[in-house]
């Protein structure tokens, strides 16, 4: 089960559903800076992949990782992993600003790449990643976990594809997170150049979902804003952000992300979405049902011309992305996610961050900027 205290520990486990035989698809984990690496590896292993190697510069992180994945071997260097011809895919959860450089090295070594979100932090990195994909024909995929590793989110996509709510015209998303003990967070979490800003970081989930649910190939950022309302001791931290986007098909999106989940909440964040269609709407309460103790997640509400229905999506869909990704790597297809979609979500979260107006000063005693 995933830990419910903070999002950094979110690592769901599902029912194994292998798409390959034992030993057919080997992968490695490099860079364990974010806890999402555990969820990434869980998903791949459940789909039949063999986790062969792990490497990180920090031996404590490697030791903890091997306690969870004891069949994995400890590599002495990145090069030991890159030189192994059996390794088809490198999964990484590096410091956000270091994710693209790691991907460039992995692809140059002939491996497909699977990174935690956000997959990069600048338009310059995006340009470099696109160039390497063209040069090597390798994949640069991203773990947008709030859609790919949440069954209510997967079911919502299935219902939309079946026409349950007609054409999607707006996606409204909230992505609150709990910061927990600020001192427990790594130093890079508070350095904007390294974590990329709140819209680039946790906002990437929201933008990717909008593109997917609304069927957009492109979108523009109409407005975005960020602020540091309550953490003056960390002046580079953005604890609040929101944005408005319009898709190339006329659909719209508003989302809000923040670090203000209170300690009294049963989970690390009350992540929700409301997807409005021409013939109905879907609401997701992804991780909990507010006011219902130990409610678990995957709550979905569907309203359309025929019915008003509640569905607990737990156990309904599994996590098909990981098996699809493995088969895409083997067959050079794009069924899990297209490269275009992955890069477009990355581009828009960077553009939202670059465009963002700072709406509140770090020092609450100074004059507020409007």
**Poorly predicted parts:** none
How many structural domains can be distinguished in the coordinates? 2
Regarding CATH, which class of the largest domain? Alpha Beta
Helix content: 25-40%
What is the CATH topology descriptor of the largest domain? Answer: Dihydrodipicolinate Reductase, domain 2
Shape: globular
The total count of strands amounts to: 15
Using only C-alpha atoms, the radius of gyration works out to 20 Å
What is the annotated CATH architecture of the largest domain?
2-Layer Sandwich
Widest beta sheet: strand line-up:
14-13-12-11-7-10-9-8-15
Query: What structural class do helix, strand and pairing data support?
Result: alpha/beta
Distance between the termini: 44 Å
Overall average residue pLDDT: 94
The helix/strand order is EHEHEHEHEHEHHEHHEEEEEEEHHE
Name the CATH superfamily assignment of the largest domain: Dihydrodipicolinate Reductase, domain 2
Biggest β-sheet description = 9 strands, mixed
Tally the helices. 11
Strand content: 15-25%
Short characterization:
By secondary structure, this protein is of the alpha/beta class. It is built from eleven helices and 15 strands.
Give a structural overview:
The structure is a single chain. With 370 residues, the protein is α/β, with parallel strands linked by helices. The chain has two domains: 7-144, Rossmann fold, CATH 3.40.50; 147-319, 2-Layer Sandwich (Dihydrodipicolinate Reductase, domain 2), CATH 3.30.360.10. 30% of the residues lie in helices and 24% in strands. It has eleven helices and 15 strands. The protein has helices at residues 36-46, 59-68, 78-82, 99-108, 123-136, 145-148, 151-161, 192-195, 203-214, 320-331, 339-355, and strands at residues 26-32, 50-55, 73-74, 87-93, 112-116, 140-143, 168-176, 219-227, 240-247, 252-258, 272-277, 280-285, 299-304, 308-312, 357-358. The strands form two sheets. A nine-stranded mixed β-sheet has the order 14-13-12-11-7-10-9-8-15, with helices on one face. It has a six-stranded parallel β-sheet with strand order 3-2-1-4-5-6, with helices on both faces. α2 links the parallel β2 and β3 (73-74). α4 runs parallel beside α5 and α9 (203-214) crosses α11 (339-355). The longest helix has 17 residues, at 339-355.
């Amino acid at each position: 089960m995933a830990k419910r205290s903070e999002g950094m520990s979110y690592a769901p486990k599902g029912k194994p559903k292998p798409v390959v035989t034992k030993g057919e698809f080997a992968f490695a984990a490099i860079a364990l800076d974010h806890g999402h690496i555990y969820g990434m590896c869980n998903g791949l292993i459940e789909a039949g992949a063999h986790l062969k190697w792990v490497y990180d510069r920090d031996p404590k992180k490697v030791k903890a990782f091997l306690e969870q994945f004891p069949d994995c071997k400890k590599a002495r260097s990145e090069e030991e992993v890159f030189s192994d011809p059996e390794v088809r895919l490198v999964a990484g959860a590096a410091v956000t600003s270091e994710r693209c450089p790691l991907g460039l090295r992995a692809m140059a070594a002939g491996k497909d790449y699977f990174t935690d979100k956000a997959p990069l932090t600048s338009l310059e990195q995006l340009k470099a990643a696109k160039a390497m994909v063209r040069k090597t024909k390798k994949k640069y995929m991203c773990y947008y976990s709030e859609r790919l590793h949440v069954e209510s989110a997967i079911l919502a996509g299935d219902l939309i594809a079946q026409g349950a709510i007609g054409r999607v015209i707006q996606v409204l998303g909230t992505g609150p997170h709990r910061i927990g003990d600020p001192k427990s967070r790594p130093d890079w979490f508070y350095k904007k150049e390294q974590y990329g800003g709140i819209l680039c970081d946790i906002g990437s989930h929201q933008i990717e979902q909008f593109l997917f649910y609304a069927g957009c190939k492109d979108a523009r950022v109409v407005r975005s804003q960020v602020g540091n309302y309550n953490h003056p001791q960390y002046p580079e931290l953005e604890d609040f952000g929101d944005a408005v986007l319009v898709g190339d098909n006329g659909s719209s999106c508003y989302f809000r992300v923040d670090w203000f989940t209170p300690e009294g909440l049963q989970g690390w964040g009350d992540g929700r979405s409301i997807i409005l269609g021409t013939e109905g709407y879907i609401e997701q309460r992804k991780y909990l049902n507010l006011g219902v103790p130990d409610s678990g997640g995957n709550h979905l509400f569907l309203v359309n011309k025929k019915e008003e229905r509640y569905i607990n999506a737990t156990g309904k869909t599994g996590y098909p992305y990981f098996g699809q990704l493995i088969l895409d790597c083997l067959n050079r297809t794009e069924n899990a996610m297209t490269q275009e979609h992955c890069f477009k979500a990355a581009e828009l979260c960077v553009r939202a961050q670059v465009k963002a107006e700072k709406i509140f000063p770090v020092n609450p005693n100074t004059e507020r900027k409007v």
